[in-house]
Amino acid sequence: MIDFIKDRWALFLVLVIFIICKIPHLSYPYCWDEGFPYAAAIRAMYAHGASLMPSAIDPELSRGHPLLFHAAAVTWMNIFGTSHMAMHSFSLCTSVLFLAAIYETGLRMYNRQVALLVLLLIATLMIFFIQSAFVLLEIPLAFLCFISLVCYVNRKYVPTALCLTAAFYTKESGLVLGVVLGIDAVIGLFTNSEKRRDRICRLLSVVIPCLLAAAFFLVQKHEMGWYIFPLHNDYIKHDWYSIWSGFRMNCIRASFDLVSKQYYFLLLLFISLLAAARNRDVRYLAPFIPAAIIYLLVDDRRGGDIKFSFILLALFIAAIVYMGYLLRKLKIYNDKRQESFIVLSAAFVFLFLCFSSMSVFIYRYLLASIIPLFFILGVIIEKFVERTSSYLYYPVLLLILTISYFSFKTDRNLSDFEPGAFAAMNVQQKEVDFLEHEDAYNKPIACGSFLTREHLTDPATGYLRGPQYFGQVKWGVDPATIFVVFNDIDHDYRYAEVSKDTSFHMVYRYADDMAWTEIYKRR
Description:
Layout: H1 2-22, H2 35-46, H3 59-62, H4 68-80, H5 84-109, H6 112-123, H7 126-131, H8 138-153, H9 157-168, H10 175-188, H11 196-224, H12 230-235, H13 240-256, H14 261-279, H15 288-297, H16 300-303, H17 309-329, H18 336-356, H19 367-388, H20 393-410, H21 420-437, E1 445-447, H22 450-457, E2 473-474, E3 483-487, H23 495-500, E4 504-511, E5 516-522
Parallel strand pairs: 1-2, 1-3
Antiparallel strand pairs: 3-5, 4-5
Helix pairs in contact: 1-5, 1-6, 2-4, 5-6, 5-8, 6-19, 6-20, 8-9, 8-19, 9-11, 10-11, 10-18, 14-19, 15-17, 18-19, 21-22
């Protein structure tokens, strides 16, 4: 018992601090896609009970996704209630379990130093921290993919099959991990270093979840008439230029450069320089090879309209493979299990980025790949520190916390993966509160912000005080319009025109240090 606490006191401390920091966010209304479609979809399922059948709720609400997440949320609602705090606690509970799993993986597969470093790296990562209490699919999917991979490399094949099936039934993009593990399992069939029973069990741990996923899509085709939700199908890119542009400017940039991420990788490069100098071995400079290509890829100002895309993609893959080869030569991996986890994680990250570049891009979709990417980053940093000087470990932890602190402190954007998300929700709540105070439920309201229109017309988003909603909300401003709502969350080019129109006057303004709203009323 003493050893258990000794190995995990840092985990308990981080989790307590994490939860305390997230408590103020639990009572917020729903943010962006939380309100529509997810909260609305979960409430629709709650009305008649949890179900995994594709026809359980309107596809406009489910967006054609598998319904395990929705069913789990409904089960939680049946126990803890339907309030915002209850639903956000459901997501926070998943995130806390995820952090515990990340620490345990680092501890059992490596050591306490790796466990603490990757825990701090991911717990303070802006996208994870902000998203950790949102009622969305991405953190549960990332959690299930991570656990599936951990169980797979540890030869826990029944848990692998269960977690992989759960990932497939959470979101379609989980199938990317099925491809990675399936290829590895097929290759493993032809290795004679393991017993035939182990090889077959490993293959079945992937095949069975794939068959269950196929069964879901067949049922969906029978009940709904399509395998993939038509809206998602329309988003799929088919030309190489669009896919390559999405890979470069969306997926690679979001993974390595967006929201201060570059500083974590610059930290790795700095430590690799120290390790190379300390050990007099240029192989420690291996991270510079892919870093140079990423530096070229992510910014048009540096790379221009890069031609020869196939060659650059091949060079990027070769650089990653060569770095892995050099790390192996440096004996960064102590055993086959560690190497398998890093290699399969890297393959999953790359294929997930390729998959994401072929459809509509939303940054939070990459959480499933960002978490293993930063786990790998943490492992390499710790191993390089270990080979340089043990005295560097705590300064490196402090640098990670410093990078995270200044990322939060300096970020002023209003997206759902940045601190401005809460400022945006606060502003939108003020808009709704004012119009409710004005009893404007049946008055024509013009609003350019899609989000505000949803909050005014749909009680499920959580901004309205009760079931009564605003019945005459639309985008256009016409002679019948009484109120016009503006904010800086969604740009509205009509702001200059209406604010100068003498037939309107501003009756309400609210601003905090990140966002503002103004409401105009016809004289």
